[in-house]
Protein backbone atom coordinates (compact mmCIF):
# COMPACT_ATOMS: atom_id res chain seq x y z
CA UNK A 1 0.00 0.00 0.00
CA UNK A 2 1.31 3.37 -0.99
CA UNK A 3 1.46 6.69 0.84
CA UNK A 4 0.80 9.28 -1.82
CA UNK A 5 2.25 12.77 -1.85
CA UNK A 6 1.04 16.21 -2.83
CA UNK A 7 2.73 18.12 -5.65
CA UNK A 8 3.54 21.79 -5.22
CA UNK A 9 6.11 23.87 -7.10
CA UNK A 10 7.52 20.77 -8.78
CA UNK A 11 8.07 18.86 -5.50
CA UNK A 12 6.26 15.81 -4.14
CA UNK A 13 5.84 16.09 -0.38
CA UNK A 14 3.54 15.52 2.59
CA UNK A 15 4.53 12.17 4.09
CA UNK A 16 5.30 13.94 7.35
CA UNK A 17 1.69 15.13 7.66
CA UNK A 18 -1.18 13.24 9.20
CA UNK A 19 -2.56 10.75 6.65
CA UNK A 20 -6.10 10.07 5.40
CA UNK A 21 -7.08 6.57 4.25
CA UNK A 22 -8.33 6.02 0.73
CA UNK A 23 -10.84 3.16 0.63
CA UNK A 24 -12.03 0.94 -2.22
CA UNK A 25 -15.84 1.19 -2.00
CA UNK A 26 -16.21 -2.25 -3.62
CA UNK A 27 -14.25 -4.11 -0.94
CA UNK A 28 -13.90 -1.64 1.93
CA UNK A 29 -10.13 -2.21 1.71
CA UNK A 30 -7.63 0.55 2.25
CA UNK A 31 -5.79 1.20 -1.02
CA UNK A 32 -3.53 4.07 -0.03
CA UNK A 33 -3.11 7.08 2.20
CA UNK A 34 -2.91 10.75 1.32
CA UNK A 35 -1.63 13.74 3.26
CA UNK A 36 -4.12 15.71 5.31
CA UNK A 37 -3.06 19.10 4.06
CA UNK A 38 -4.53 22.35 5.33
CA UNK A 39 -4.01 26.10 5.33
CA UNK A 40 -0.23 26.03 5.08
CA UNK A 41 -0.11 23.68 2.09
CA UNK A 42 -2.94 25.57 0.39
CA UNK A 43 -0.94 28.79 0.64
CA UNK A 44 2.25 27.13 -0.60
CA UNK A 45 0.35 25.93 -3.65
CA UNK A 46 -0.81 29.46 -4.47
CA UNK A 47 2.74 30.78 -3.96
CA UNK A 48 4.00 28.22 -6.48
CA UNK A 49 1.25 28.86 -9.01
CA UNK A 50 1.71 32.60 -8.70
CA UNK A 51 5.49 32.33 -9.16
CA UNK A 52 5.02 30.24 -12.30
CA UNK A 53 2.33 32.44 -13.82
CA UNK A 54 4.45 35.14 -15.44
CA UNK A 55 6.65 32.76 -17.37
CA UNK A 56 3.85 30.35 -18.39
CA UNK A 57 1.48 33.07 -19.54
CA UNK A 58 4.24 34.76 -21.58
CA UNK A 59 4.83 31.67 -23.71
CA UNK A 60 3.22 31.27 -27.10
CA UNK A 61 -0.04 29.36 -27.27
CA UNK A 62 1.67 26.86 -29.53
CA UNK A 63 4.37 26.23 -26.97
CA UNK A 64 1.78 25.55 -24.24
CA UNK A 65 -0.19 23.43 -26.65
CA UNK A 66 2.84 21.20 -27.23
CA UNK A 67 2.97 20.40 -23.50
CA UNK A 68 -0.72 19.55 -23.48
CA UNK A 69 -0.27 17.28 -26.49
CA UNK A 70 2.53 15.47 -24.71
CA UNK A 71 0.38 15.12 -21.56
CA UNK A 72 -2.45 13.79 -23.74
CA UNK A 73 -0.14 11.17 -25.27
CA UNK A 74 1.09 9.96 -21.87
CA UNK A 75 -2.48 9.65 -20.56
CA UNK A 76 -3.40 7.70 -23.69
CA UNK A 77 -0.51 5.29 -23.11
CA UNK A 78 -1.58 4.72 -19.52
CA UNK A 79 -5.34 4.82 -20.01
CA UNK A 80 -5.89 1.36 -18.57
CA UNK A 81 -3.67 1.92 -15.55
CA UNK A 82 -5.47 5.16 -14.78
CA UNK A 83 -8.86 3.49 -15.28
CA UNK A 84 -7.96 0.71 -12.85
CA UNK A 85 -6.92 3.23 -10.20
CA UNK A 86 -10.21 5.01 -10.79
CA UNK A 87 -12.32 1.87 -10.45
CA UNK A 88 -10.49 0.94 -7.26
CA UNK A 89 -11.07 4.26 -5.55
CA UNK A 90 -14.40 5.27 -7.07
CA UNK A 91 -16.21 2.03 -7.87
CA UNK A 92 -17.38 2.54 -11.46
CA UNK A 93 -17.06 -0.47 -13.80
CA UNK A 94 -13.66 -0.66 -15.50
CA UNK A 95 -15.16 -0.19 -18.96
CA UNK A 96 -16.80 3.03 -17.81
CA UNK A 97 -13.55 4.13 -16.17
CA UNK A 98 -11.69 3.61 -19.47
CA UNK A 99 -14.44 5.62 -21.15
CA UNK A 100 -13.95 8.40 -18.61
CA UNK A 101 -10.18 8.48 -19.14
CA UNK A 102 -10.73 8.90 -22.89
CA UNK A 103 -13.39 11.56 -22.29
CA UNK A 104 -11.07 13.34 -19.84
CA UNK A 105 -8.20 13.17 -22.28
CA UNK A 106 -10.47 14.62 -24.97
CA UNK A 107 -10.55 17.91 -23.05
CA UNK A 108 -6.77 18.10 -23.09
CA UNK A 109 -6.44 17.52 -26.84
CA UNK A 110 -9.38 19.76 -27.67
CA UNK A 111 -8.04 22.66 -25.60
CA UNK A 112 -4.50 22.11 -26.86
CA UNK A 113 -5.95 23.19 -30.22
CA UNK A 114 -8.43 25.79 -29.01
CA UNK A 115 -5.77 27.61 -26.97
CA UNK A 116 -4.25 28.71 -30.28
CA UNK A 117 -7.46 30.50 -31.28
CA UNK A 118 -7.86 33.15 -28.62
CA UNK A 119 -8.68 35.96 -31.00
CA UNK A 120 -9.17 39.60 -30.11
CA UNK A 121 -10.96 42.39 -31.98
CA UNK A 122 -10.19 45.70 -33.61
CA UNK A 123 -13.25 47.91 -33.34
CA UNK A 124 -13.79 51.00 -35.55
CA UNK A 125 -13.15 54.08 -33.44
CA UNK A 126 -15.15 57.35 -33.30
CA UNK A 127 -12.10 59.49 -34.03
CA UNK A 128 -9.70 59.24 -36.95
CA UNK A 129 -6.73 59.46 -34.59
CA UNK A 130 -7.85 56.59 -32.35
CA UNK A 131 -7.78 52.80 -32.53
CA UNK A 132 -9.66 50.35 -30.35
CA UNK A 133 -7.99 47.02 -29.63
CA UNK A 134 -9.51 44.17 -27.63
CA UNK A 135 -7.32 41.36 -26.35
CA UNK A 136 -8.07 38.31 -24.25
CA UNK A 137 -5.69 37.58 -21.42
CA UNK A 138 -5.36 34.62 -19.02
CA UNK A 139 -7.23 35.41 -15.82
CA UNK A 140 -4.30 34.33 -13.62
CA UNK A 141 -4.00 31.67 -10.94
CA UNK A 142 -6.96 29.25 -11.05
CA UNK A 143 -8.25 27.19 -8.11
CA UNK A 144 -10.02 23.98 -9.13
CA UNK A 145 -12.04 21.99 -6.60
CA UNK A 146 -13.34 18.72 -7.98
CA UNK A 147 -15.76 15.94 -6.96
CA UNK A 148 -15.38 12.16 -6.67
CA UNK A 149 -17.86 11.02 -9.33
CA UNK A 150 -15.60 11.84 -12.31
CA UNK A 151 -12.11 11.78 -10.79
CA UNK A 152 -10.31 12.42 -14.11
CA UNK A 153 -12.69 14.36 -16.33
CA UNK A 154 -13.57 17.03 -13.78
CA UNK A 155 -9.87 17.84 -13.51
CA UNK A 156 -9.00 17.95 -17.21
CA UNK A 157 -12.17 19.88 -18.08
CA UNK A 158 -10.84 22.69 -15.86
CA UNK A 159 -7.08 22.31 -16.13
CA UNK A 160 -7.04 21.78 -19.93
CA UNK A 161 -8.46 25.19 -20.88
CA UNK A 162 -6.74 26.95 -17.97
CA UNK A 163 -3.28 25.80 -19.03
CA UNK A 164 -3.98 26.27 -22.73
CA UNK A 165 -4.59 30.01 -22.30
CA UNK A 166 -1.70 30.61 -19.90
CA UNK A 167 -3.21 30.25 -16.43
CA UNK A 168 -1.54 28.20 -13.68
CA UNK A 169 -3.60 26.01 -11.36
CA UNK A 170 -4.00 24.75 -7.82
CA UNK A 171 -6.17 21.63 -7.57
CA UNK A 172 -8.02 20.07 -4.64
CA UNK A 173 -9.46 16.72 -5.70
CA UNK A 174 -12.18 15.01 -3.71
CA UNK A 175 -10.80 13.23 -0.67
CA UNK A 176 -12.48 9.96 -1.76
CA UNK A 177 -10.77 9.91 -5.19
CA UNK A 178 -7.35 11.59 -5.06
CA UNK A 179 -5.31 8.78 -6.62
CA UNK A 180 -6.56 9.28 -10.16
CA UNK A 181 -5.77 12.97 -9.76
CA UNK A 182 -2.24 12.24 -8.50
CA UNK A 183 -1.66 9.96 -11.47
CA UNK A 184 -2.75 12.68 -13.92
CA UNK A 185 -0.47 15.19 -12.24
CA UNK A 186 2.42 12.71 -12.27
CA UNK A 187 1.96 12.40 -16.05
CA UNK A 188 1.79 16.20 -16.39
CA UNK A 189 5.16 16.37 -14.66
CA UNK A 190 6.49 13.66 -16.98
CA UNK A 191 5.22 15.68 -19.95
CA UNK A 192 7.57 18.43 -18.81
CA UNK A 193 4.93 20.97 -17.83
CA UNK A 194 7.05 23.49 -15.90
CA UNK A 195 7.10 23.42 -12.12
CA UNK A 196 4.41 25.46 -10.40
CA UNK A 197 2.06 25.37 -13.39
CA UNK A 198 0.08 22.47 -11.89
CA UNK A 199 -0.12 22.02 -8.13
CA UNK A 200 -2.27 19.61 -6.18
CA UNK A 201 -3.05 19.45 -2.49
CA UNK A 202 -5.28 17.09 -0.53
CA UNK A 203 -6.83 17.34 2.91
CA UNK A 204 -9.32 19.61 4.61
CA UNK A 205 -11.73 20.88 1.94
CA UNK A 206 -13.05 23.74 3.99
CA UNK A 207 -9.60 25.00 5.05
CA UNK A 208 -8.09 24.72 1.58
CA UNK A 209 -11.16 26.24 -0.09
CA UNK A 210 -11.15 29.17 2.35
CA UNK A 211 -7.45 29.94 1.93
CA UNK A 212 -7.80 29.94 -1.85
CA UNK A 213 -10.92 32.05 -1.77
CA UNK A 214 -9.37 34.62 0.58
CA UNK A 215 -6.18 34.90 -1.47
CA UNK A 216 -6.42 37.77 -3.94
CA UNK A 217 -3.75 36.18 -6.14
CA UNK A 218 -6.25 33.44 -7.07
CA UNK A 219 -8.31 35.13 -9.77
CA UNK A 220 -10.63 32.30 -10.71
CA UNK A 221 -12.42 29.57 -8.81
CA UNK A 222 -13.83 26.64 -10.71
CA UNK A 223 -15.84 24.10 -8.74
CA UNK A 224 -17.86 20.99 -9.45
CA UNK A 225 -19.86 19.54 -6.58
CA UNK A 226 -22.99 20.07 -4.56
CA UNK A 227 -25.17 23.18 -4.76
CA UNK A 228 -24.79 23.53 -1.00
CA UNK A 229 -20.98 23.83 -1.13
CA UNK A 230 -21.18 25.87 -4.35
CA UNK A 231 -23.17 28.53 -2.51
CA UNK A 232 -20.58 28.74 0.30
CA UNK A 233 -17.77 29.09 -2.23
CA UNK A 234 -19.64 31.72 -4.22
CA UNK A 235 -20.19 33.84 -1.11
CA UNK A 236 -16.54 33.53 -0.09
CA UNK A 237 -15.31 34.31 -3.61
CA UNK A 238 -17.06 37.66 -3.39
CA UNK A 239 -14.43 38.97 -0.94
CA UNK A 240 -11.76 39.04 -3.62
CA UNK A 241 -14.18 39.35 -6.56
CA UNK A 242 -12.99 36.22 -8.32
CA UNK A 243 -14.33 34.97 -11.58
CA UNK A 244 -16.29 31.80 -10.76
CA UNK A 245 -17.64 28.75 -12.55
CA UNK A 246 -19.89 26.39 -10.64
CA UNK A 247 -21.14 23.03 -11.90
CA UNK A 248 -23.61 21.98 -9.24
CA UNK A 249 -26.44 19.55 -8.61
CA UNK A 250 -29.17 18.54 -10.99
CA UNK A 251 -32.51 16.77 -11.11
CA UNK A 252 -32.94 15.70 -14.71
CA UNK A 253 -36.41 14.96 -16.09
CA UNK A 254 -36.65 12.34 -18.84
CA UNK A 255 -39.72 12.82 -21.06
CA UNK A 256 -41.06 9.99 -23.24
CA UNK A 257 -43.73 11.20 -25.68
CA UNK A 258 -46.33 8.84 -27.13
CA UNK A 259 -44.60 8.86 -30.52
CA UNK A 260 -41.14 8.01 -29.11
CA UNK A 261 -39.13 5.04 -30.35
CA UNK A 262 -39.48 3.07 -27.13
CA UNK A 263 -36.36 0.99 -27.58
CA UNK A 264 -34.31 4.15 -28.03
CA UNK A 265 -36.03 5.71 -25.03
CA UNK A 266 -35.31 2.71 -22.81
CA UNK A 267 -31.67 2.68 -23.93
CA UNK A 268 -31.60 6.42 -23.13
CA UNK A 269 -32.86 5.84 -19.59
CA UNK A 270 -30.29 3.08 -19.04
CA UNK A 271 -27.46 5.31 -20.29
CA UNK A 272 -28.53 8.44 -18.45
CA UNK A 273 -29.70 6.84 -15.22
CA UNK A 274 -27.44 3.90 -14.46
CA UNK A 275 -24.05 5.14 -15.62
CA UNK A 276 -21.77 5.42 -12.60
CA UNK A 277 -24.53 3.73 -10.56
CA UNK A 278 -26.62 6.88 -10.93
CA UNK A 279 -23.94 9.12 -9.46
CA UNK A 280 -23.68 11.86 -12.07
CA UNK A 281 -25.11 15.35 -11.96
CA UNK A 282 -26.75 14.83 -15.37
CA UNK A 283 -28.34 11.51 -14.34
CA UNK A 284 -32.01 11.06 -15.07
CA UNK A 285 -33.86 11.55 -11.80
CA UNK A 286 -37.52 11.28 -12.87
CA UNK A 287 -39.14 9.73 -15.94
CA UNK A 288 -42.34 11.18 -17.41
CA UNK A 289 -44.00 8.74 -19.80
CA UNK A 290 -47.14 9.51 -21.79
CA UNK A 291 -50.09 7.71 -20.18
CA UNK A 292 -51.04 5.93 -23.45
CA UNK A 293 -47.72 4.01 -23.60
CA UNK A 294 -47.11 3.55 -19.90
CA UNK A 295 -47.51 -0.23 -19.70
CA UNK A 296 -45.39 -1.14 -22.68
CA UNK A 297 -42.66 1.36 -21.71
CA UNK A 298 -42.54 0.11 -18.13
CA UNK A 299 -42.34 -3.51 -19.27
CA UNK A 300 -39.47 -2.75 -21.63
CA UNK A 301 -37.67 -0.70 -18.99
CA UNK A 302 -38.06 -3.43 -16.37
CA UNK A 303 -36.70 -5.99 -18.79
CA UNK A 304 -33.67 -3.84 -19.63
CA UNK A 305 -32.93 -3.03 -15.99
CA UNK A 306 -33.19 -6.71 -15.02
CA UNK A 307 -30.15 -7.37 -17.25
CA UNK A 308 -27.88 -4.96 -15.37
CA UNK A 309 -25.28 -6.76 -13.28
CA UNK A 310 -24.24 -5.33 -9.93
CA UNK A 311 -20.77 -6.03 -8.51
CA UNK A 312 -17.12 -5.09 -8.21
CA UNK A 313 -16.30 -2.91 -11.21
CA UNK A 314 -13.02 -4.73 -11.79
CA UNK A 315 -14.90 -7.90 -12.68
CA UNK A 316 -15.96 -8.68 -16.23
CA UNK A 317 -19.52 -7.82 -17.29
CA UNK A 318 -20.43 -5.57 -14.36
CA UNK A 319 -22.76 -2.64 -15.16
CA UNK A 320 -23.29 -1.16 -11.71
CA UNK A 321 -20.57 -0.81 -9.10
CA UNK A 322 -20.88 0.17 -5.44
CA UNK A 323 -22.02 3.60 -4.30
CA UNK A 324 -19.35 5.88 -2.91
CA UNK A 325 -20.22 5.56 0.79
CA UNK A 326 -22.83 4.50 3.31
CA UNK A 327 -24.66 7.81 3.37
CA UNK A 328 -25.18 7.49 -0.40
CA UNK A 329 -26.74 4.06 0.16
CA UNK A 330 -28.89 5.39 3.01
CA UNK A 331 -30.17 8.21 0.81
CA UNK A 332 -31.40 5.80 -1.87
CA UNK A 333 -32.99 3.54 0.80
CA UNK A 334 -34.76 6.52 2.29
CA UNK A 335 -36.09 7.63 -1.10
CA UNK A 336 -37.34 4.13 -1.95
CA UNK A 337 -39.13 3.80 1.40
CA UNK A 338 -40.62 7.26 1.04
CA UNK A 339 -41.87 6.44 -2.48
CA UNK A 340 -43.49 3.20 -1.33
CA UNK A 341 -45.15 4.95 1.61
CA UNK A 342 -46.70 7.44 -0.86
CA UNK A 343 -48.13 4.79 -3.18
CA UNK A 344 -45.14 3.95 -5.42
CA UNK A 345 -44.85 0.38 -6.71
CA UNK A 346 -41.45 -1.29 -7.09
CA UNK A 347 -41.31 -3.27 -10.36
CA UNK A 348 -37.65 -4.15 -10.03
CA UNK A 349 -35.01 -4.02 -7.28
CA UNK A 350 -35.74 -1.96 -4.22
CA UNK A 351 -33.06 -3.20 -1.87
CA UNK A 352 -29.56 -2.32 -0.84
CA UNK A 353 -27.31 -5.36 -0.92
CA UNK A 354 -24.20 -6.19 1.08
CA UNK A 355 -21.55 -3.48 1.43
CA UNK A 356 -22.23 -0.39 -0.65
CA UNK A 357 -24.14 -2.13 -3.44
CA UNK A 358 -27.69 -1.12 -4.29
CA UNK A 359 -29.99 -2.95 -6.71
CA UNK A 360 -31.05 -0.94 -9.76
CA UNK A 361 -34.58 0.02 -8.83
CA UNK A 362 -37.70 1.09 -10.70
CA UNK A 363 -40.62 2.72 -8.87
CA UNK A 364 -43.77 3.24 -10.95
CA UNK A 365 -46.89 5.30 -10.13
CA UNK A 366 -44.54 7.98 -8.81
CA UNK A 367 -46.11 11.25 -7.65
CA UNK A 368 -44.59 14.71 -7.45
CA UNK A 369 -44.63 14.76 -3.64
CA UNK A 370 -42.14 11.87 -3.38
CA UNK A 371 -38.61 12.80 -2.27
CA UNK A 372 -37.10 11.14 -5.35
CA UNK A 373 -39.15 13.44 -7.60
CA UNK A 374 -37.48 16.61 -6.34
CA UNK A 375 -34.38 15.70 -4.30
CA UNK A 376 -31.22 14.61 -6.14
CA UNK A 377 -30.90 10.81 -5.76
CA UNK A 378 -27.29 10.05 -6.80
CA UNK A 379 -28.04 6.36 -6.92
CA UNK A 380 -29.63 3.71 -9.17
CA UNK A 381 -33.29 4.52 -8.51
CA UNK A 382 -35.62 5.57 -11.31
CA UNK A 383 -39.14 6.79 -10.56
CA UNK A 384 -41.67 6.70 -13.40
CA UNK A 385 -44.78 8.87 -13.60
CA UNK A 386 -47.31 9.58 -16.36
CA UNK A 387 -48.64 12.72 -18.05
CA UNK A 388 -51.42 13.67 -20.48
CA UNK A 389 -50.04 16.40 -22.75
CA UNK A 390 -47.05 18.52 -23.67
CA UNK A 391 -48.09 21.51 -21.64
CA UNK A 392 -48.42 19.47 -18.47
CA UNK A 393 -45.11 17.67 -18.87
CA UNK A 394 -43.19 20.86 -19.65
CA UNK A 395 -44.58 22.54 -16.53
CA UNK A 396 -43.77 19.56 -14.31
CA UNK A 397 -40.32 19.04 -15.82
CA UNK A 398 -39.46 22.71 -15.22
CA UNK A 399 -40.78 22.71 -11.67
CA UNK A 400 -37.36 22.39 -10.03
CA UNK A 401 -34.74 24.72 -8.57
CA UNK A 402 -32.23 22.79 -10.68
CA UNK A 403 -31.66 23.26 -14.41
CA UNK A 404 -28.73 21.14 -15.54
CA UNK A 405 -29.81 18.36 -17.93
CA UNK A 406 -33.14 17.16 -19.35
CA UNK A 407 -33.96 14.41 -21.84
CA UNK A 408 -36.77 14.22 -24.39
CA UNK A 409 -37.65 11.28 -26.60
CA UNK A 410 -40.01 11.84 -29.53
CA UNK A 411 -39.98 11.10 -33.27
CA UNK A 412 -42.01 14.22 -34.08
CA UNK A 413 -39.69 17.01 -35.20
CA UNK A 414 -41.98 19.93 -34.34
CA UNK A 415 -42.64 18.54 -30.91
CA UNK A 416 -38.92 17.85 -30.40
CA UNK A 417 -38.13 21.50 -31.07
CA UNK A 418 -41.05 22.87 -29.03
CA UNK A 419 -40.26 20.83 -25.94
CA UNK A 420 -36.49 21.13 -26.03
CA UNK A 421 -36.79 24.91 -26.36
CA UNK A 422 -39.32 25.15 -23.52
CA UNK A 423 -37.21 23.20 -21.04
CA UNK A 424 -35.35 25.43 -18.58
CA UNK A 425 -32.19 23.33 -18.66
CA UNK A 426 -28.64 24.02 -19.82
CA UNK A 427 -28.34 20.66 -21.58
CA UNK A 428 -31.10 18.85 -23.46
CA UNK A 429 -30.59 15.32 -24.74
CA UNK A 430 -33.02 14.99 -27.64
CA UNK A 431 -33.29 11.26 -28.32
CA UNK A 432 -29.84 11.19 -26.70
CA UNK A 433 -29.09 9.78 -23.25
CA UNK A 434 -25.40 10.74 -23.26
CA UNK A 435 -24.88 14.32 -24.51
CA UNK A 436 -21.58 15.19 -22.73
CA UNK A 437 -18.60 15.75 -25.04
CA UNK A 438 -15.51 18.00 -24.86
CA UNK A 439 -16.51 20.41 -27.63
CA UNK A 440 -20.02 21.19 -26.30
CA UNK A 441 -20.99 23.59 -23.48
CA UNK A 442 -21.77 21.80 -20.23
CA UNK A 443 -23.51 23.73 -17.47
CA UNK A 444 -26.78 24.55 -15.85
CA UNK A 445 -29.54 27.09 -15.40
CA UNK A 446 -30.88 28.19 -12.00
CA UNK A 447 -29.28 26.53 -8.94
CA UNK A 448 -27.34 24.08 -11.09
CA UNK A 449 -24.58 26.62 -11.41
CA UNK A 450 -22.85 29.38 -13.28
CA UNK A 451 -20.72 29.34 -16.40
CA UNK A 452 -19.97 26.59 -18.88
CA UNK A 453 -17.25 24.01 -19.33
CA UNK A 454 -16.33 22.46 -22.65
CA UNK A 455 -16.06 23.91 -26.12
CA UNK A 456 -15.03 27.49 -26.82
CA UNK A 457 -17.54 28.62 -24.19
CA UNK A 458 -15.44 26.81 -21.57
CA UNK A 459 -12.24 28.62 -22.50
CA UNK A 460 -13.80 32.08 -22.09
CA UNK A 461 -14.15 31.33 -18.37
CA UNK A 462 -10.36 31.50 -18.02
CA UNK A 463 -9.92 34.77 -19.90
CA UNK A 464 -10.14 38.44 -19.04
CA UNK A 465 -10.96 41.03 -21.67
CA UNK A 466 -8.50 43.88 -22.07
CA UNK A 467 -9.40 46.95 -24.08
CA UNK A 468 -6.52 49.09 -25.29
CA UNK A 469 -7.44 52.52 -26.58
CA UNK A 470 -4.75 54.09 -28.73
CA UNK A 471 -4.74 57.81 -29.53
CA UNK A 472 -2.14 59.30 -31.88
P1 LIG B 1 -20.22 15.74 -3.33
O1 LIG B 1 -21.64 15.60 -2.93
O2 LIG B 1 -19.96 15.49 -4.79
O3 LIG B 1 -19.23 15.10 -2.41
P2 LIG B 1 -19.26 18.25 -2.35
O4 LIG B 1 -19.73 19.59 -2.78
O5 LIG B 1 -19.41 17.89 -0.92
O6 LIG B 1 -20.02 17.27 -3.31
O7 LIG B 1 -17.75 18.01 -2.76
C1 LIG B 1 -17.18 18.43 -3.95
C2 LIG B 1 -15.79 18.93 -3.70
O8 LIG B 1 -15.85 20.06 -2.84
C3 LIG B 1 -14.88 17.93 -2.98
O9 LIG B 1 -13.55 18.11 -3.46
C4 LIG B 1 -15.00 18.35 -1.55
O10 LIG B 1 -13.88 17.94 -0.81
C5 LIG B 1 -15.05 19.86 -1.70
N1 LIG B 1 -15.65 20.59 -0.57
C6 LIG B 1 -16.57 20.15 0.30
N2 LIG B 1 -16.86 21.10 1.21
C7 LIG B 1 -16.09 22.19 0.90
C8 LIG B 1 -15.92 23.52 1.45
N3 LIG B 1 -16.62 23.94 2.50
N4 LIG B 1 -15.04 24.33 0.85
C9 LIG B 1 -14.34 23.93 -0.21
N5 LIG B 1 -14.47 22.72 -0.77
C10 LIG B 1 -15.32 21.86 -0.24
Q: Can you walk me through this structure?
A:
With 472 residues, the chain is an alpha/beta fold. It folds into 2 domains: 271 residues, Aldehyde Dehydrogenase, Chain A, domain 1; 179 residues, Aldehyde Dehydrogenase, Chain A, domain 2 (3-Layer(aba) Sandwich). It is 39% helix and 23% strand. The chain has 14 helices and 23 strands. The strands form 6 sheets. It has a 7-stranded mixed beta sheet, sandwiched between helices. Strands 10-9-8-11-12-22 form a 6-stranded mixed beta sheet, with helices on both faces. Strand 8, helix 5 and strand 9 form a beta-alpha-beta unit. The protein is globular. The protein binds adenosine-5'-diphosphate (ADP). Adenosine-5'-diphosphate binds next to helix 7 and helix 8.
What's the layout of helices and strands?
Blueprint: E1 2-3, E2 6-8, E3 11-13, E4 19-23, E5 30-35, H1 39-58, H2 61-77, H3 79-90, H4 94-114, E6 121-123, E7 130-138, E8 141-145, H5 153-165, E9 168-172, H6 178-190, E10 198-200, H7 205-214, E11 218-224, H8 227-237, E12 243-247, E13 252-256, H9 262-274, E14 284-290, H10 294-306, H11 326-341, E15 345-348, E16 361-364, E17 381-387, H12 390-398, E18 402-403, E19 405-409, H13 413-422, E20 427-430, E21 445-446, E22 449-450, H14 455-460, E23 463-471
Parallel strand pairs: 1-5, 8-9, 8-11, 9-10, 11-12, 13-14, 13-19, 14-17, 16-17, 19-20
Antiparallel strand pairs: 2-3, 4-5, 6-7, 7-23, 12-22, 15-16, 18-21
Helix pairs in contact: 1-7, 2-4, 2-5, 2-6, 3-4, 3-6, 4-5, 9-10
